[in-house]
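Possible regression after last week's pipeline update?

I re-ran a chain I had predicted before the update to compare outputs. Posting the input and the new output here so someone can diff against the archived version. Not blocking, just want to make sure nothing changed silently.
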Amino acid sequence: MELFKSLIVILLSSVLLNNYVLSRFLGICPFLGVSKKLDQAVGMGVSVTAVMLLATAVTWPIQYFVLERFGLGYTQTIVFILVIAALVQMLENLLKKFSPSLHKGLGVYLPLITTNCAVLGVAINNITDGYNFLESMVSSLGVGLGFLLAMVLFSGVRSRIDESEVPESFKGLAVTLIAASFISLAFMGFAGIVDNLFA
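New output (post-update):
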């Protein structure tokens, strides 16, 4: 029961309280660049979630069974970047071969995941936070779902902004950043909920 509670807290904290986009400011480039349309936002969010889970499943054992065992912990960032790039390339090749329609639908978003710092951030933070393998996978799932949630919410906000009258001085990136800051502030309200979930 304690393990279940711990996993639920990790999941909800990752989605709501420690949302990588809205509180840690990781993954901002796709958040701002790919959130104009809902279908693009969902495609990017699902792809990032899948890559985060795969990256964690591969990098956690590499960290503990290779890097730490042979005293190579200082190469963590480089190794993780190479692993993430290889995973994204492998995923792209598999989708191209076995599901051409999905590959075409994701288009340019799949290679862009390699440069998404949230993917590298979750792999490194899972190690830094001292999570075991199961906790790391739950954390990665939560971070991915939080990324997806932020993308979908911001996509709706941006569609409303496009339909609204915006003063000339706020058009473009300025109003987009202001809207993102309001969403970030709204997510700060979840702080007490997660802490008192099982109190």
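Follow-up from reviewer: compared with the archived run. The chain has ten helices and no strands. Marking as no regression found.
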